[in-house]
Design brief:
The structure is a single chain. The chain has about 260 residues and is of the alpha+beta class. About 40% of the residues lie in helices and about 10% in strands. It has 9 helices and 5 strands. The chain has helices at about 5-20, 25-45, 50-55, 65-75, 85-95, 150-155, 180-185, 225-235, 245-255, and strands spanning about 120-125, 165-170, 190-195, 205, 215. Strands 2-1-3-4-5 form a 5-stranded antiparallel sheet. A hairpin with a 5-residue loop joins β4 (about 205) and β5 (about 215). α1 (about 5-20) runs antiparallel to α2 (about 25-45). The chain is globular and about 60 Å long. The termini are far apart.
Length: about 260
């Protein structure tokens, strides 16, 4: 039973039990309803807070897949993320459940853009029944029609669990709540976000949807341009997603 389905079932049980208690039925029936309501409350209380919030606020989240991706990201060491950029990017893709596909057309599984510019740096894990959602003007500066479902299905590594992964656009993430593609179009939390660290923008961090640090490193080789890296940081400036990037960047600056 999926976490999202379990959440909905327990919530429905609580509502039915509440009205059963109010409608004047026999004491025996009311006792049964009370026990059912208490049971549902215990199940909901046993869910991690982040899981319950994901299901309630962002029903498009592939929760089990998100948890696997976050766990993968936490295993990435400083050394893992301090190799040549091409190698680092492939490691980030793999951690997020995305294949490295550079010989397909955009929309047909191409992931060469993922984490390679300033904007496509959110790793989003969404349920497949939400993967075909269109923007339809909900996220500013994103194409009105941006069908991504087919590409998501092709590029997603299914060994990480149900649902798909995609590197969605960060624009709009510096508001509370975030108004980016993941949270608005796909109604999903992100598993992690790549942010380049000011002021030098030579280091990067991966942070989760709460802004907590998962991994960091200093890749070498041919990085995205300095302009792209600085623009990436500008998208998160002033938000929870900027905190760890600024902290790591400050340490780098002090050591320079």
């Amino acid at each position: 039973l999926s976490l999202s389905l379990s959440f909905r079932i327990q919530r429905q049980r609580m509502v039915r039990s509440y009205f059963c208690l109010l409608d004047g039925r026999s004491a025996l029936t009311r006792t049964g309803c009370l026990l059912l309501c208490l049971s549902a409350c215990l199940v909901l209380a046993s869910m991690p807070v982040a899981v319950a919030e994901s299901v309630a606020m962002y029903p498009g989240t592939a929760v089990a897949r998100l948890q696997r991706v976050v766990a993968n990201a936490k295993t990435l060491t400083v050394a893992d993320l301090s190799a040549g950029w091409d190698t680092v990017r492939r490691r980030i893709l793999a951690a997020g459940g995305l294949k490295d596909i550079t010989d397909a057309a955009p929309g047909n599984g191409y992931t060469g853009h993922a984490f390679n510019d300033y904007n496509h740096c959110d790793l989003t894990t969404m349920r497949f029944d939400f993967a075909d959602e269109d923007n339809q003007g909900r996220v500013d500066m994103i194409a009105y029609n941006n069908p991504l479902g087919n590409g998501i299905r092709i590029a997603s590594d299914q060994s990480l669990g149900p649902g798909g992964s995609w590197s969605t656009c960060m624009m709009g993430c510096n508001t509370d709540p975030p108004q980016d593609v993941a949270h608005v179009q796909f109604r999903s939390r992100i598993a992690f976000k790549l942010v380049w660290c000011p002021p030098a923008f030579s280091r990067l961090v991966l942070v989760d949807d709460a802004g907590r640090l998962l991994a960091h490193g200093e890749p070498s080789g041919r990085l995205p341009s300095l302009q792209q890296r600085s623009m990436n940081y500008e998208l998160v400036r002033g938000s929870k997603y900027a905190v760890e990037a600024e902290r790591i960047g400050a340490v780098e600056g002090a050591q320079a």
